[in-house]
Amino acid sequence: MRIRIDKNLCNGCETCVSSCPDVFMSWGMYLKADFDVADPEKYRQAVREAAGLCPQKAISIDE
User: Fold this and answer.
1) Residues 56/5, Cβ–Cβ less than 8 Å
2) In principle, which of 17, 34, 35, 62 could form an S-S bond with 2, CB 3.0–4.6 Å?
3) Phi–psi pair at 52, nearest 5 degrees
4) What are the backbone dihedrals phi and psi of residue 2, each rounded to the nearest 5 degrees, phi first?
5) What are phi and psi of 62, to 5 degrees?
6) What angle (nearest 5°) sits at the alpha carbon of residue 10, between those of residues 6 and 14?
7) Model confidence over 12-56: pLDDT tens digits?
């Protein structure tokens, strides 16, 4: 599972970090834009929920 964050859309609200902190590590506006989830089966549902909660719809998931 690969997560992509569109940095042009992301407003840095960190809703994704609050929703799924084990996956969405935050460095303020230096949030990684493209990364793989180490244990996709464990986090699949939480990542989907975090993407759905993003107010800017900046998160996409490649499974």
Assistant:
1) no
2) 62
3) -70, -30
4) -115, 135
5) -105, 120
6) 125
7) 899 999 999 988 886 554 567 888 888 999 999 999 999 999 999
Q: Assess whether pLDDT exceeds 90 at residue 57.
A: yes
Range 2-62 has CATH code 3.40.50.300:
no
What residues form DSSP beta bridges with 62? 2
Residue 36: strand, helix, or coil: strand
- Strands 59-62, 34-36: pairing is unpaired
pTM of the model: 0.85
Q: How far is CA 28 from CA 3, 22, 25, 56, in A?
A: 17, 16, 9, 16
Residue 8 contacts by C-beta under 8 Å, 6 or more apart in sequence?
Answer: none
